[in-house]
UniProtKB/TrEMBL annotation:
It comes from the Bacteria. It comes from Enterovirga rhinocerotis. The record marks C162 as: Transition state stabilizer. Keywords: Amino-acid biosynthesis, Isomerase, Methionine biosynthesis. GO terms for biological process: L-methionine salvage from methylthioadenosine. Pfam families: IF-2B (PF01008). This is Methylthioribose-1-phosphate isomerase. GO terms for molecular function: S-methyl-5-thioribose-1-phosphate isomerase activity. Belongs to the EIF-2B alpha/beta/delta subunits family. MtnA subfamily. Catalyzes the interconversion of methylthioribose-1-phosphate (MTR-1-P) into methylthioribulose-1-phosphate (MTRu-1-P). Also catalyzes the interconversion of 5-deoxyribose 1-phosphate and 5-deoxyribulose 1-phosphate. Part of a bifunctional DHAP-shunt salvage pathway for SAM by-products. The gene is mtnA.
Length: 365
């Protein structure tokens, strides 16, 4: 996608061929800052502090993190330490574990004699694969928007939560990929952007992306979705996912479940768009089994933004001293999900639906 007309990916290699460069998402939408990652510690810190975020991008950053780690210590012990360090950064997005397992298995092969070079090669391949996967999600999901437009004959209103756009992946995004493809085809669209408290990924990142791509959108407070659906102002919801069970339960940013409940009550189709690397084939019950990240209370009690006088400021918005809790994700049970948009097509949110598209992966468990 583009920032100010320049084609951009969220992660790339610097000109020295070794340093990894990422867009610092804690500074968006106010400033576009490219941050260099030069070590395992840098990569782990970038994931932990959400300089990079979004399940697929976390996975690819971890892959590059292993490459950086191999420069420091390419021994068996060095590889194990790097995998452990990166795996501990964020617990919910399974793409992190998926990428690390894939990298570790490949780097552990006896015929690999230069682990560092191989790690860079694999990480770059994973980044390219992510782009292709997300583009395919966009092509499959765009059919839903085309159908909605054909049925209503008017602009299609899509509601999305958090940021599952290109900033959350290497390029294209998951939930926003169908929107980009459909928009480029000329289908008239308008996106309701949930602000997504507490970190405001919707208001800050999704709105930034859509504006850069000239797609009509409106930011709404998180609690507005139900009201909009009751009044027929949402044709469909599309969200991303951080971990999806083999049975079709979908973990995504906190608040997603409430949107799915409102969608069910109002007969609004509710889709999750995700690459197969987000499916945890070992899990059957998302509510019971998916680990939910608990983030600092300060993200709830404080907000960061640009002051009207300029400059980025953080202000306290809560009653000083009151305790706050910050579960970062929730699980939407499969029964509330109309379909799962993947790189291979749209599946029903069920064991049979996902297995029909991914028989090899589903059969491994
Ligand atoms: O905490 P974040 O910003 O990493 O959470 C991101 C989300 O919840 C996204 O919807 C999800 O990772 C899908 S990204 C394509």
């Amino acid at each position: 996608m583009n920032i100010d007309g320049c084609p951009t990916r969220t992660i790339r290699l610097a000109a020295d061929g070794e340093t990894v460069e990422v867009i610092d998402q804690t500074r968006l939408p106010h400033e576009v800052v490219v941050r260099p990652l030069a070590s395992l510690a840098d990569a782990a810190e970038a994931i932990r502090t959400m300089v990079v975020r979004g399940a697929p991008l976390i996975g690819v950053t971890a892959a590059y993190g292993l490459a950086l780690a191999m420069r420091e210590d390419a021994s068996e012990a060095g590889l194990a330490h790097a995998v452990e360090t990166l795996a501990a950064t964020r617990p919910t997005a399974v793409n992190l574990r998926w990428a690390l397992d894939r990298m570790a298995a490949a780097l552990g092969r006896p015929e690999v004699n230069d682990r560092t070079a191989e790690a860079y090669r694999l990480a770059a391949a994973m980044a390219d694969e992510d782009v292709e996967t997300c583009r395919a999600i966009g092509v499959h999901g765009a059919a839903l928007l085309r159908e909605a437009h054909a049925r209503t004959g008017r602009e299609v209103n899509v509601l999305t939560h958090c940021n599952a756009g290109w900033l959350a992946t290497v390029d294209w995004g998951t939930a926003l990929a169908p929107i980009y493809v459909a928009h480029d085809e000329g289908i008239p669209l308008h996106v309701w952007v949930d602000e997504t408290r507490p970190r405001n990924q919707g208001a800050a990142l999704t709105a930034f992306e859509l504006r850069q791509h000239s797609i009509r959108h409106t930011i709404v407070a998180d609690n507005a979705g139900g009201h909009l659906m009751q009044h027929g102002r949402v044709d469909l919801c599309i969200v991303g996912s951080d971990r999806t069970t083999a049975t079709g339960d979908v973990a995504n940013k906190i608040g997603t479940y409430l949107k799915a409940l409102a969608a069910k009550d109002n007969g609004v189709p509710f889709y999750a768009a995700l690459p197969s690397s987000t499916i945890d084939w070992t899990l059957a019950d998302g509510v019971a089994e998916i680990p939910i990240e608990e983030r600092p209370a300060r993200e709830v009690t404080h907000m960061t933004g640009r002051a009207e006088t300029g400059g980025i400021v953080t202000v306290e918005i809560a009653s000083p001293g009151s305790p706050a809790a910050n579960p970062a994700f929730d699980v939407t049970p499969a029964r509330l999900v109309t379909g799962i948009i993947t790189e291979r097509g749209i599946a029903s949110a069920s064991t049979a639906g996902l297995a029909a598209l991914f028989p090899r992966e589903a059969g491994r468990v």
